[in-house]
Amino acid sequence: MLNLRGDVMSVKLLDRTRKISRLLHNNSSYVVVFNDICKLLGDMLEANIMVISARGKMLGIYEREDISSLTNMLTDNIGEVIDEELNDRFLSVLSTKENVNLSTLGFEGDIISGLSAVVMPIDFAGERLGTTFIYRSNSEFEIEDIILCEYANTVVELEMMRSIYEEDVEEKRRTNAIDAVFSSLSASERKAIGYVFKELDGQMEGTIIASRIAEQYGITRSIIVNAIQKLEGAGILIVRSKGMKGTHLIVCNDTIYERIDIKG
Fold first, then answer.
1. Minimal CA–CA distance to 87: which of 122, 110, 120, 54?
2. For 41-80, how does the pLDDT look when each residue is reduced to its tens digit (9 = 90+)?
């Protein structure tokens, strides 16, 4: 009878891990959706799941209606930052801790009564990337649950690394675009671009009047126009003429602010 029960639980665990694997393999897009991982694991464990970055930013969340929400120190909005002291406590956990006493993490009040939690570091190649936080009501996490949590956390680690890699690739692409267009600018055009962005005053969009800039800095309007056209051709700017009111510029690649001189 014990063997039969063990076999049934093993098959159930195997089926659950396969569902998580399919979620990873079916994600062919370049957008990492941690919410999907949280929801799948949350439904399996009947638990609330949160994926939090090392800086305390909420990356993924799944909350069930039948479980009290710990929103006094957390947040239920993607992109928002959780309580700083709580995040420090999360980061101090260096290995998976199951059935954690929530009061040791700083949670207080009757709301934590009956809640069991799991805290799992998200690590990759020795670097702490964040924390997976799981909690549920009236049921401690058993060994099969912990195994499933560990497996899901590995998927989170892989997806987080992919997200970081994609951000690095995108940043390199943006930097290369800036390098390419700057190599095509003459010295006077570089100065003109500096004057244009000084006019924008650090904003991602705004309206400039080329003739006024030319008069103010003693350069020709054509140099300003040529420089703007080169940035537009490289996809760094969107340029919209407003007739007598000037030219409206939208900055598509804010990396350019790291390269220009706006002191002049």
1. 54
2. 999 999 999 999 999 999 999 999 989 888 778 888 888 9
